[in-house]
Amino acid sequence: MGTRAPIEMLGLDHVVIRCVDQDAMAQFYRDLLGCTVDRHNKKLDLLQLRAGSHLIDLIAVDGVLGRRGGTAPGSEGRNLDHFAIQIAEFDEAALHAWIAENGLEIVEEGPRYGAEGTGPSVYIRDPEGNIVELKGPCDPD
Amino acid sequence: MSENSAPFSLKGLDHVVIRCRDLAALKRFYCDVLGGTIQEEDTEIGLYQVRVGSHIVDLMPVDEPSGRKGGPAPGKNGHNMDHFALQVVPYDDDAIRTYLSRHGVELGSTIIRGGAEGEGPGIHIKDPEGNTVELKGPPDPAYN
Fold first, then answer.
1. What is the pLDDT of residue A7?
2. How many CA atoms lie within 13 A of A47 on its CB side?
3. Contact B53 A10 (CB under 8 A)
């Protein structure tokens, strides 16, 4: 298609989720999933959480950045179906116990294809209904 | 803060899945314009995987089986994902703008904001269905 892009894509850097209750969302991603706070820009209501090599940013829909995107997301008609985080260990029994202990629900689970091949995945929902796929190491083949 | 009890450690992002109306238009954008490549196409469930470097952007048409589960197509506003960012090299703002303009891509401002690897420049652009994609350059020593 004519000229080539003057860039090469290396991969994902961050994903930014618009949220109604930023505190509840932060609790989920930080206290439950184990993200750490990278930066908190209070002026912009932007909370940047580190998930390994990348960031999950939370912006409040009623904050400076969030307001630019209009209303809060509904339960349907979302632009992001789900996103996936690679996890280093996939101990199915421990995961199930942790999910039950924390009152979470398994949306679906099973081997899924991801960026590094096929491996086990479990899908859960954050407090605002976003589906998060926890993706274990890929099966060697 | 409660102690994190998760029986795993986080490595990083793997993929994002975008619900879309016009698969062909999004494939053109992510592949022909940005340089992604089709990795797998599952026409049975309706999932089209575009490789973007080490990771994947999945396209999920709203009128195919997987996409239908999420209800109607997303509107212009009220998105659950504000944007996502892709690391790109090299970062030459002028060259990127010239190239994308030629392809009719809607360009936003260039901002210096913290990414996963530090502060660096990034340009916000829109895909054909209004999703904001940030093309993020390497961290700039001037800001770190």
1. 97
2. 22
3. yes
| pTM for this prediction | 0.96
From A39, which residue of chain B is nearest by alpha-carbon distance? B114
Element at B61 (helix H, strand E) = strand B55-61
Report CA-CA distances (Å) from A114 to A54, A80, B30: 16, 16, 18
- Length of chain B, in residues: 144
Q: What is the ipTM of this complex?
A: 0.96
Beta bridge partners of A11: B87
- C-alpha separations of B133 from A23, A78, A83, B108, B126 in Å: 25, 16, 15, 10, 6
Neighbours of A106 (CB within 10 A): 13
Contact criterion met (CB < 8 Å) for A52 and B11: yes
Closest among B83, B107, B111 to B95, alpha carbons compared: B107
For residue range B75-133, what is the model confidence (pLDDT) as tens digits? 999 999 999 999 999 999 999 999 999 999 999 999 998 899 999 999 999 999 999 99
Query: What was the pLDDT predicted at B141?
Result: 81
Q: Do B99 and A101 touch (CB under 8 A)?
A: no
